[in-house]
Design goal:
Shape of chain A: globular
Number of helices of chain B: 19
Helix content of chain A: 40-55%
Mean pLDDT of chain A: 80
Distance between the termini of chain A: 45 Å
Distance between the termini of chain B: 20 Å
CATH architecture of the largest domain in chain B: 3-Layer(aba) Sandwich
Number of helices of chain A: 25
Structural class of chain B: alpha/beta
Number of domains of chain B: 2
Strand order of the largest sheet of chain B: 3-2-1-4-5-6-7
Strand order of the largest sheet of chain A: 3-2-1-4-5-6-7
Largest sheet of chain B: 7 strands, parallel
Largest interface: A-B, 22 and 20 residues
Helix content of chain B: 40-55%
Radius of gyration of chain B: 22 Å
CATH superfamily of the largest domain in chain B: Glycogen Phosphorylase B
Low-confidence stretches of chain A: 1-24, 98-131, 204-223, 540-554
Shape of chain B: globular
Oligomer: heterodimer
Number of strands of chain A: 13
Chain lengths: ~550, ~400
């Protein structure tokens, strides 16, 4: 485990623990939870994992003098609104209970989130779960009764891996026993939940607890002619700090964001993942100018940016802030290895297709910037040149993203290469851990990268990775791994061949990987809290007034 | 009363582009100086609507010449003038006009119409009239700049040489030569060995009071924004200059800062691929105002924190520079933007006129103007661009011709 790893077996705090009362507190942190509510923890990209980690940290570490709450983007009013009680409970479940939660169909994309649901119709729950006693138990019963099957199963699975882990060091009989206990417990829990749901409906409780319809199309049609609902009250008050880790460009009204400080006294702190789209303008799924505007606007509006790598911070200055004559403070901390930190909880699950095989993993969304095409070309070359039986299987782990036609064509039509390639789009964390532990090595040939979490994660499990020479990847792997130009086809062929054929090459690289330390687990999340604390307490603030620092003549 | 014929390669009924405005300004100056002025244009019918045509205009309707002009846009004026000079019918019409107006002087606006005028003078009854050449540009030099738009044709270089020969011949033949630019006046004088009068442009904004009232200022206050004003046509150097000087888009502007663009330039910019590379941020920071009436121009500039003249290449009369200086607002421009305004601009460098020739310097000046409220051009500099001054100088120059004629007559 990396140094300062998290205390993962914390008490489940529930909604009451998640949201501390803002009354009388020195300052509030309001976090944009729009995308987490939309995606749960399942997204084509890894950003929601970062959100989850930061929120969990903030909820756990926020001092008593401050308060944490969430806001959601309201498309109708083009403004943030407070989360409803139901959404708050859902966030609590995502962040603390169901770390593996896939909640299909729950979320409503921020661009489709309508005005605040009528509380009387939709949410009968109080703002927070009662702390103790019968009221709390009754509320938990209602929530359990109201869970969808997928949510229920995801919740139970998480509880199972947390409390009944199946670890590699266990003996085979012990592992079989634990799995049997898990299955029995799951069956019992399902039956209990059904009975509970039936009882709750009989008493009308579950109806009142029904969550907002994720696809309120019919309701929206019926309300076309109705007058627009009054805008919900602003969730902000002077002194608040708004934190955004989301890529908000799909829905944000930047004029509104600009108004938050002058009109509401709200300070804004924003995460900076990368500016690859402006560095290489053809790699973004939409027109690059959309993302470019986001990066520019956050530079104008944020008190601080928190960058996931020095490279992203440097790129931001080079491509965004310097050409536009502004200077925003940027704090930097590498992303921690979430997976390794939670590995004991998650356990590991073998991927049957890969058991007893030599394989090489590339874990990343499949999109043009990640450069999967290079690997397919390299593997095709190796297929033709390596001795029979020496070519390891190339495993792509990740969801399909954008501009992937060429990769699909290469992967599907080349029937001679096909047996040597696996594309796994639905991989659990337990399976990924197994792959990291059992892969010969991993690869990461991205054209550019904000950090390259998968490269660092691979090394956290002691598995070496061959990377492209993008500075962020070198940074993430602490300069320990071979770095090749992402277009150097022959260089990649030579390096992969060396690792596959030369007996000493891979062990030597593994020895280097074993010296990998990884970022401090809390460092990145801590930057958000520290930024908010500094701004809340001007006397100790290290954050200069942005308006005073932006001197175009400098 | 002396009579004058103002002859141009465009109509003067409703002046829109810079050349028309300049010619119209001179015609007005002559009128105010006591001359009876008749205007006439010789141009193809495809370029100007019927509603813009004047009573004495001679319109070329031959589809062949219209096609030839369309095929070789940058030499359209020369092609039309050659055609007119070779057409007995047009020459006869022009000679008839000369006989009808019986001018004491003909002001040749730009060199082109000198070709048919030369022919017409052979038939007209007033061969002794004075020829005044009003130069708007050194035309032969600006044509090759337009090659980069893909407008170079076989024979283009020959036409450049012919244009130069035409300008030289007219300059040498004319009884009086005006130039809109001080630097070009010197150049023409050096090339032709004769005196050339620098007659800077006039702006209708020069004599008005500067007021931050009006709909533009109100709108800016209502939106709590400050804006830089820019007026321009869709003429390509206007768009290219803007994009060359702001190559990374308009993200340098804070959310409460804007550039408001009037004239056809705004639409031209919005369609340019270099603008679209940064479309989201550009759309959020730039507002396309569209065409505005002359009487609104003052209000448009008055509501602004500065006026931009972002030109790096291209000829033209650069009347937008005159308007910018005359507006009284700080002018952010380039060395090229004030080229031709030497004696005027020198009085206001860094005191109303701010020069930057690199993108970075230009951007910094723009931000300073929006955030620090730079001073605008002082009153005495504005006054150098008013119509009264042009009228006085024009009248004096024309009077000198009269005395010269009298001497000759005596």
């Amino acid at each position: 485990m990396p140094p300062n790893g998290p205390a993962l077996h914390h008490t489940l705090p529930g909604a009451a623990g998640l949201i501390s009362s803002a009354e009388g507190s020195a300052g509030r942190l309001l976090v944009d939870a729009s995308l987490v509510l939309h995606h749960g923890l399942k997204s084509a990209v890894g950003i929601v994992r970062v959100e989850h980690y930061v929120y969990e940290y903030l909820a756990r570490e926020i001092p008593s003098s401050m308060a944490l709450d969430f806001v959601v983007w309201n498309h109708t009013n083009k403004a943030y609104r407070a989360v409803t009680a139901q959404e708050r409970l859902t966030l609590a479940s995502i962040i603390f209970l169901t770390e593996e939660a896939a909640i299909p169909g729950y979320g409503v994309h921020p661009s489709a989130i309508e005005s605040t649901p009528a509380e009387s119709e939709v949410v009968a729950a109080p703002d927070t779960l009662p702390e103790h006693g019968w009221p709390r138990f009754r509320m938990q019963l209602r929530l359990a009764a109201n869970a969808r099957p997928a949510e229920r199963d995801a919740f139970l699975a998480t509880i199972a891996v947390r409390h009944l882990p199946v670890l590699p060091e266990y003996s085979t009989p012990r592992r079989i026993t634990i799995r049997a206990v898990r299955v029995c417990a799951l069956m019992l829990a399902r039956a209990a939940q059904k009975a509970l749901a039936l009882t709750a409906r009989t008493h009308g409780a579950a109806v009142r607890l029904r969550r907002p319809d994720p696809e309120p199309v019919l309701a929206a049609v019926a309300e076309v002619d109705a007058p627009p609902p009054p805008p919900p009250p602003s969730p902000f008050r002077p002194g608040d700090t708004l934190i955004s880790l989301s890529n908000v460009w799909d829905y944000m009204d930047y004029a509104y964001l600009a108004s938050l400080k002058p009109e509401h006294g709200v300070r804004f702190v924003c995460c900076l993942f990368d500016v690859c789209g402006t560095e290489i303008p053809y790699v973004t799924p939409g027109p690059t100018h959309i993302y470019h505007r986001h990066w520019v606007e956050i530079g104008h509006l944020a008190e601080r940016l928190i960058s996931i790598s020095q490279f992203s911070a440097d790129s931001y200055r080079r491509f965004i802030s310097e050409p536009n004559h502004f200077d925003v403070p940027i704090d930097v901390a590498g992303l921690p290895n979430f997976l390794h930190a939670r590995a004991t909880d998650i356990g590991e699950v073998a991927v049957p297709d890969l058991v007893d095989q030599d394989f090489v993993v590339f874990c990343s969304t499949i999109e043009i910037r990640k450069n999967h095409i290079l690997l397919l070309n390299v593997w095709e070359e190796l297929r033709q040149t390596l001795p029979e039986g020496r070519l390891p299987t190339l495993v792509f782990v990740g969801k399909w993203g954008w501009y992937t036609d060429h990769v699909r064509m290469m992967a599907e039509r080349n029937f001679r290469l096909r047996p040597h390639v696996r594309i796994l789009t639905e991989v659990s964390d337990a399976e990924l851990i197994w792959m990291y532990r059992h892969a010969s090595f991993t690869v990461f040939p991205a054209l550019s990268e904000g950090f390259g979490l998968a490269a660092a994660e691979s090394m956290s499990f002691g598995t070496p990775v061959v990377i492209s020479n993008c500075p962020a990847l070198i940074e993430a792997t602490e300069g320990l791994m071979p770095a090749l130009h992402p277009q150097d086809f022959l260089g990649w062929v030579r390096e992969i061949t060396r690792l596959v054929v030369e007996p000493d090459a891979l062990p030597q690289l593994c020895a280097k990987a074993a010296t990998f330390r990884g970022p401090n687990y809390h460092a990145f999340a801590e930057l958000f809290l520290r930024a908010a604390q500094n701004m809340t307490n001007p006397e100790t603030s290290q954050v200069p007034d942005r308006a005073m620092t932006t001197n175009p003549a400098q | 009363m002396k009579t004058c014929l103002s002859l141009a390669s465009f109509p003067l009924l409703r002046p829109r582009h810079g050349g028309q405005v300049r010619a119209s300004s001179i015609a007005r100056g002559l009128t105010e100086a006591g001359w009876a002025v008749t205007t006439a244009g010789i141009y193809p019918d495809s370029l100007f609507a019927e509603t813009e045509r004047g009573l004495h205009d001679i319109v070329l309707t031959d589809p062949g010449v219209v096609q030839a002009i369309n095929d070789n846009m940058i030499f359209g004026d020369l092609i039309a003038a050659r055609y007119a000079a070779a057409s007995p019918e047009i020459v006869a019409n022009l000679a008839a006009l000369l006989d009808q107006v019986r001018p004491d002087a003909v002001v040749v606006e730009q060199p082109w119409v000198w070709l048919p005028l030369q022919q017409a003078l052979k038939f007209a009854g007033r061969p002794a009239l004075a020829i005044i050449y009003s130069s708007h540009n050194i035309e032969w030099r600006m044509r090759p700049e337009l090659y980069q738009l893909g407008l170079r044709r076989a024979g283009s270089d020959t036409m450049v040489r012919e244009t130069r020969a035409l300008e030289t011949a007219l300059s040498q033949r004319a009884d009086l030569v005006f130039s809109i630019s001080d630097s070009e006046a010197s150049e023409i004088a050096e090339e032709t060995g004769r005196a050339v009068i620098y007659l800077p442009p006039a702006s209708t904004l020069a004599s008005g009071q500067i007021s931050d009232e009006g709909r533009f200022a109100e709108k800016a206050r209502e939106q709590s924004i400050s804006y830089a004003a820019l007026i321009g046509s869709a003429y390509w150097p206007n768009a290219e200059g803007f994009l060359d000087l702001l190559p990374n888009g308009l993200g340098l502007l804070r959310p409460n800062e804007r550039i408001w663009v009037a004239g056809a330039l705004g639409a031209a910019l919005a369609q340019n691929i270099r603008y679209r590379d940064y479309q989201s941020i550009n759309d959020s920071r730039m507002r396309v105002i569209g065409q505005i009436d002359d009487d609104e121009k003052a209000a448009f500039f008055a509501g602004a924190d500065c006026v931009l003249v972002p030109v790096l290449t291209g000829g033209g009369s650069k009347l937008k520079t005159a308007d910018a200086i005359a507006s009284g607002r700080p002018v952010i421009t380039t060395t090229h933007g004030i080229d031709g305004y030497g004696p005027i601009a020198q009085l206001a460098i860094n005191k109303g006129i701010y020069i930057a020739d690199t993108p970075r310097d230009f951007q910094i000046l723009l931000l300073r103007a929006l955030r620090e409220r730079l001073p605008g051009c002082p009153e005495h500099v504005r006054a150098m661009l008013n119509q009264q001054r042009l009228t006085t100088e024009l009248g004096a120059a024309m009077a000198a011709i009269k005395r010269q004629d009298a001497t000759v007559s005596a």
